[in-house]
Amino acid sequence: MNRIPPVIDMAPDGTFRTKPSGMRAPLSFKLLLGATIVAVLAGAAAVAALALWVAALLLPVVVIAAAVAWGAYTYRRWRRGPSVGPRSIYPR
Q1: Where are the domains of the chain?
Q2: Residue 10 neighbours by CB under 8 Å, 6+ apart
């Protein structure tokens, strides 16, 4: 226990005269922080790519559903026939 206590060089107003030594983060922490940031960014890119892939797979389904809806609408207009009177509630 022959440890020398640290010398704190502090001004009367409470500020340090010199920057305290040994207050920097170790290299292993910096590497861990960098690897974590890279992993989070890669995960976000993977989620975005998955979302785009699902949207691309659903695009033909949406186009077919729109075509069926348009066909049903056109068929119902054809079955209704011409409207009676000068103005109709359902415009053609």
Answers
A1: 30-79
A2: 16, 17
pTM above 0.90, yes or no: no
Report which secondary-structure segment, H or E, holds 28. Answer: helix 27-80
Contact 18, 9 (CB under 8 A): yes
Mean pLDDT calculated for residue range 13-24:
72
| Structure-token match 């890279």, residue found | 38
Q: What letters, b where the CB count within 10 A reaches 16 and e where it falls short, cover 11-43? A: eeeeeeeeeeeeeeeeeeeeeeeeeeeeeeeee
With 60 as the cut, is the pLDDT of residue 41 above it?
yes
